[in-house]
Write a structure and sequence with these properties.
Blueprint (H helix, E strand, L loop, with lengths): L1 H19 L6 E4 L2 E5 L14 E5 L2 E5 L12 E5 L2 E5 L12 E5 L2 E5 L4 E2 L6 E5 L2 E5 L4 E13 L2 E5 L4 E13 L2 E5 L4 E13 L2 E2 L6 H6 L2 E8 L2 E3 L5 H4 L1 H6 L1 H5 L2 E4 L60 H24 L1
């Protein structure tokens, strides 16, 4: 009789443990790894000890602020084949343990200011085959000590001023086979101590004043800037003017024109004459002055959302796990008391 009751107690405890650590609907959970698929809204109730999170085929309006901040042990975040209206301000802040963030084959309407803010010590940020409509000012802000930051085979139409700002100590920056429509003056600023830079096989349609020199001045020890294509209008004036033809002779011979049509037959940018690009407001011996818009960083974040089921015991809607825990405790005490009296 007593053994039977004890067996029921063990089974009851197993069921309680399962209920209290329930895996979110639409997800698979195993050994601190959560893998979700085809969700319509971002899950805010992952187990606090989650170390790796992967989601695929997700469609939602936004990846919210502090989306992962309550996961103090999170190290890897992978987002695959998903669609987001936007990555909200402060979506990836307060993540001291994160080492790797990956977006793969996804579509993002915009990355808002300070979405990637203060990720010091992250080892890898990767965007692969991903479309980002707008990189807002300070989208990538105050990042440091990155091993690899790569953007590969992605479509990045619009870069605002200061889209990449105050990023330091990057071991390798890879920008490969991307399509960029418009990069504003100052889109890349204060990138310091970048050891190796690879900018290859990209198509740049419109690079405003100062962007290209900023890219070319990144590499501290190794710089590969080859086989890129430019829309050969006034945006390449700094390359094909008198100064540029001396300073960038190697680059000019390894890049070409993607348009306009009369320029497509040029063997390289070296074959482009300054008078052909239509810069009537400056001469080939006159440097194009760059005015960098002054934007003062203001990285304020909203308070982190409380994950579902973790609200304060005194707050509204706190009945979930707290109530279940109370009921389970009372029931367990009753069962153990019954077992004691039966045994005596």
């Amino acid at each position: 009789m007593t053994k039977t009751l004890v067996g029921h107690v063990v089974l009851f405890l197993a069921l309680v443990s399962s209920a209290l650590s329930e895996c979110p609907v639409g997800c698979y959970c195993n050994n601190k790894f959560v893998d979700c698929s085809a969700l319509m809204d971002f899950p805010m109730n992952l187990a606090p000890d989650t170390e790796r999170f992967r989601v695929s085929q997700m469609n939602t309006i936004e990846l919210p602020a502090h989306a992962f901040s309550y996961l103090v042990n999170i190290t890897i975040i992978e987002i695959k084949s998903s669609n987001f209206g936007k990555i909200a301000r402060c979506a990836f802040t307060d993540l001291p343990s994160v080492k790797r963030i990956v977006f793969d084959k996804s579509v993002i309407g915009s990355i808002e200011p300070y979405a990637f803010w203060g990720l010091n010590g992250i080892e890898q940020i990767e965007l692969f085959e991903t479309r980002i409509g707008r990189l807002k000012p300070f989208a990538f802000y105050k990042l440091a000590n990155i091993n690899v930051m790569s953007i590969i085979q992605s479509n990045l139409p619009i870069w605002y001023t200061h889209a990449f700002y105050d990023i330091s100590n990057v071991n390798m920056l890879i920008f490969n086979r991307n399509n960029v429509s418009d990069m504003a003056t100052g889109a890349i600023m204060l990138l310091n101590n970048v050891t190796s830079v690879q900018v290859t096989q990209n198509t740049f349609w419109n690079m405003h004043c100062g962007v290209l020199p900023a890219l070319l001045d990144l590499g501290r020890t190794t710089q590969f800037f080859t086989n890129n294509s430019f829309y050969c209008n006034c945006s390449i004036a700094s390359l094909v003017n008198t100064t540029g033809r001396v300073k960038y002779i190697d680059l000019l011979q390894k890049t070409n024109c993607v348009g306009p049509d009369p320029m497509k037959n040029k063997t390289s940018l070296w074959a482009v004459d300054f008078n052909e690009i239509g810069c009537t407001h400056i001469g080939k011996d006159t440097g194009l002055p760059c005015t960098h818009p002054m934007i003062i960083p203001n990285p304020q974040c909203v308070e982190p959302a409380v994950p579902e089921g973790e609200a304060s015991a005194e707050g509204e809607g706190s009945g979930g796990n707290a109530l279940l825990s109370y009921i389970c405790t009372v029931t367990l005490v009753t069962m153990l008391s019954a077992a004691f009296f039966i045994n005596t």
